[in-house]
């Protein structure tokens, strides 16, 4: 069954964010190459809108196409940050009102203001671009704001913090609906990471510093390739050719976390990927991901995600074509 996705664009729309749904969802196919999503775009009245890049966007459709949507993606505009609990402008409110009850609605970046202004986020958790998070929280006190999350899935309503996290949210939806194999294929085709958990912090004012003529990336890549090995901070520091103390300090400056915490996250995500895409027994997955024992992996997954390895595999196993 093909999912009908409609992108809703308002005046001042940010063109890159508007294009993401077509690029990401439009890349998803089954094993026979059949499209899994049909993506269209519309405006509140069917007329062209001016994009923030200084050009006009001419949509194929007006708001009537929203009545047939399974997923609506509200593209952001800088003007959205002026919205209040009084509600969105009548044309925008009418467009949202045309969305069928079964459809999910996702906002990208500042478009979270649209959902909040319409009252859809009251009593829910949401995110928005980090630079607007404080203002958003003050403007919509009935919404619980998670200023660090990349995206938040609240069932029918989903919010993404920005452009790249919009991609993460779309991959999350593909993964949930069609399994990891399809989502990973889309990620490869789009040349983006296949998985960044929604709770992962936005990268706020965390520039990666120079690493004495070297860069963290080679060491991080090396570590990812050796997650099954008994990696230590000393081993990472040796690979980076600096002292343990210097490595630890610069690693935290560059990533915002400690080497041990980062390694644990990487091992957890790799274990999840193996559970979703292979038939390896849990003990084997644990060994390959660096947990050593299945018991350690079970403890970690229950602590971080509240599920057992078997339950995670059952929930996210790639769907058959």
Short key terms for the protein model shown above:
321 residues, alpha/beta, Rossmann fold, two-stranded antiparallel ribbon, 42% helix
CATH superfamily of the largest domain: Class I glutamine amidotransferase (GATase) domain
What amount of the residues lies in strands? 5-15%
CATH class of the largest domain: Alpha Beta
Describe the sheet with the most strands. 6 strands, mixed
How many domains comprise the coordinates?
Answer: 2
Which regions contain 5 or more consecutive residues with pLDDT less than 50?
A: 203-214
The total count of strands amounts to 10
Kindly report the CATH topology of the largest domain: Rossmann fold
What structural class do helix, strand and pairing data support?
A: alpha/beta
Helix content: 40-55%
Mean pLDDT over the full residue set: 89
- What's the order of the H and E elements? EHEEEEHEHEHEEEHHHHHHHHH
Rough outline: globular
Radius of gyration: 21 Å
Strand order of the largest sheet: 2-1-5-6-10-9
Task: Label the CATH architecture of the largest domain.
Answer: 3-Layer(aba) Sandwich
Topology:
Elements: E1 3-9, H1 15-24, E2 37-43, E3 49-50, E4 56-57, E5 71-74, H2 90-97, E6 104-108, H3 112-117, E7 125-126, H4 133-139, E8 144-145, E9 151-154, E10 157-160, H5 163-178, H6 180-190, H7 216-225, H8 233-240, H9 244-255, H10 259-277, H11 282-289, H12 294-305, H13 309-316
Parallel strand pairs: 1-2, 1-5, 5-6, 6-10, 7-8
Antiparallel strand pairs: 3-4, 9-10
Helix pairs in contact: 1-5, 5-6, 8-9, 10-11, 11-12
């Amino acid at each position: 069954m093909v999912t009908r996705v409609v992108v809703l664009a308002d005046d001042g729309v940010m063109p890159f964010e508007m294009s993401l749904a077509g690029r990401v969802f439009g890349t998803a196919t089954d094993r026979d190459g059949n499209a899994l999503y049909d993506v269209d775009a519309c405006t509140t009245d069917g007329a062209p809108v001016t994009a923030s890049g200084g050009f006009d966007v001419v949509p194929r459709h007006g708001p009537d196409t929203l009545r047939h949507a399974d997923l609506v993606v509200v593209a952001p505009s800088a003007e959205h940050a002026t919205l209040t609990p009084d509600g969105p402008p009548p044309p925008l409110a009418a467009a949202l009102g045309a969305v069928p009850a079964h459809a999910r609605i996702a906002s990208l970046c500042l478009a979270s203001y649209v959902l909040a202004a319409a009252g859809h986020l009251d009593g829910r958790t949401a995110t928005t671009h980090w630079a607007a998070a404080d203002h958003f929280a003050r403007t919509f006190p009935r919404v619980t704001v998670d200023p660090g999350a990349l995206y938040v899935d609240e069932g029918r309503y989903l919010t993404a913090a920005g452009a790249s996290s919009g991609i993460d949210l779309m991959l999350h939806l593909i993964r949930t609906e069609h399994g990891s194999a399809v989502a990973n294929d889309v990620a490869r085709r789009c040349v983006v990471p296949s998985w960044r958990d929604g709770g992962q912090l936005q990268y706020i004012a965390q520039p990666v510093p120079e690493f004495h003529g070297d860069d963290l990336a080679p060491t991080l890549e090396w570590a990812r390739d050796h997650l099954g090995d008994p990696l230590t901070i000393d081993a990472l520091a040796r690979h980076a050719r600096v002292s343990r103390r210097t490595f630890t300090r610069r690693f935290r400056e560059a990533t915002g976390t400690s080497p041990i915490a980062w390694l644990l996250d990487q091992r957890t995500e790799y274990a999840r990927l193996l559970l979703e895409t292979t038939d390896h027994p849990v003990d084997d997955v644990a060994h390959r991901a660096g947990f050593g024992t299945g018991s350690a992996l079970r403890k970690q997954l229950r602590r971080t995600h509240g599920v057992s390895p078997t339950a995670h595999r059952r929930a996210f196993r790639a769907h058959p074509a």
